[in-house]
Amino acid sequence: MKNNDLCLIVMENCKDFGLKVDDHLKKIRKTEKSFILPIDAVRFSDGEGKVKLLSSIRGKDVFILSDTHNYNITYKMYGKEHTMSPDEHYQDIKRTILATMGHAKRISVVMPFLYESRQHRRKSRESLDCALALQELKALGVDNIITFDAHDPNVQNAVPTMAVDNFYPTNDILKEFLKNEKINNESTLVISPDAGAMDRARFLADIIKVDVGLFYKRRDLSKVVNGMNPIEAHEYLGKDLEGKNAIVVDDMIASGNSLIDVAKELKKRKAKKIFFFSTFALFTNGPDIFIKAHDEKLFDKIYSTNLTYVPDEIKKSKWFVAADCSKYLAEIIDYNNAGKSTAELIDKNSAIHSILK
Question: How far apart are CA 260 and CA 283, in angstroms?
Answer without folding.
Answer: 13
